[in-house]
Amino acid sequence: MLITYSSKTEFNNNLHFLHGNSMTPDSYKNFLNQFKDNFNVKCSVLRPLTENNKFIKFKNWDIFLNDYLESIKNEDDIIGIGHSIGGNILIKAAILYPEKFKKIFLLDPTFFTPTTIYLWKLISFFNLQSKFLPYIDRAANKKMIYNDLDLMYKSYRKYKVFSNFTDEDLRVFIKSLVIKKDKHYQLVFDKNWDSQIYRTGLVNDMFIWRNLKKIDVDSYILQAENSDTFLNKTKNKVKKINSSIEILTVKNSDHLFPINNYLETAKILKKYIV
What does the pLDDT read at residue 7? Predict the structure, then answer.
């Protein structure tokens, strides 16, 4: 599904954004607002946020890649931006259909070395993912309904992942994750999808490595200085295989820098985006 995020004016440049796991396009509202006056900003959404969101067990992320490709089938000259799993899906789409894209920007993509991928496949074969990645069970057991946004804020504030958020930004972020139902607030991204996304990552990512050298789209990777999804050893291997992919570091940042450091992120992108 593709939703329009820009102003009503039509521009020559089409910017397409794909969000990360458990988040929504509105989670990136401050970031996307930096572009909407000069670009046709559109957002593809992961299946858990669409009408076709009934949970099904899946073995890899191809389900989301296919959804993304369907959402852009009538789009051309795309400047693609993807965060986390969104970056992983975006580079696969650009490998498959380079004619669709002008440039792609991967924001701290979920992308690991071949050694890590093969190790994860072995872990998956023995169904031991939860023992090595605590996010899986944490997502599966997360609270879905809150009676009060202040209570939700207090709950989220204690997690390290949100330590770089200002109080105001965290409250805005929390509002982007929920819808109001009767007298309570419910997370819109179902925990079953959330957990399964963590469980099934990496397994098909050798496709990226096999095709990285011949990718035919101007490609940029923005790495968080303190990233836990795009590590330095991955960066070094990418550079060795394809030196034309430009890798930029967002200083003093973590994985959520498009949200908690959106001004700096937009500033960097604007240097390269046109």
Answer: 53
Q: Beta 178-181 vs 184-187: how paired, if at all?
A: antiparallel
Q: HSE (CB half, 13 Å, CA atoms) of 75? A: 30
How do residues 136-159 score in pLDDT, each as one tens digit? Answer: 999 999 999 999 999 999 999 999
Cα–Cα distance between 220 and 117 in angstroms, integer? 22
Q: Which residue(s) pair with 181 in the sheet?
A: 184
Q: How large is the greatest C-alpha to C-alpha distance in the chain, in angstroms?
A: 55
230 C-beta neighbours (distance < 10 Å), count: 25
- Do 177 and 165 contact (CB within 8 A), yes or no? no
Ordered by start, the domain boundaries in the chain are: 2-272
CATH code: domain 2-272 is: 3.40.50.1820
Q: Token pair of 11, please?
A: 């521009």
User: Mind giving me the DSSP string for 2-46?
Assistant: EEE-S-SS--S-EEEEE--TT--GGGGHHHHTTTTTTSEEEEE--
pLDDT in tens, 7-29: 555 677 889 999 999 999 999 99
Pairwise CA distance, residues 56 & 53, whole Å: 9
- Structure confidence by residue, pLDDT tens digits, 193-241: 999 999 999 999 999 999 999 999 999 999 999 999 999 999 999 999 9
CB atoms within 10 A of CB 144: 13
Q: State the Cα–Cα distance between residues 154 and 146, nearest whole angstrom.
A: 11
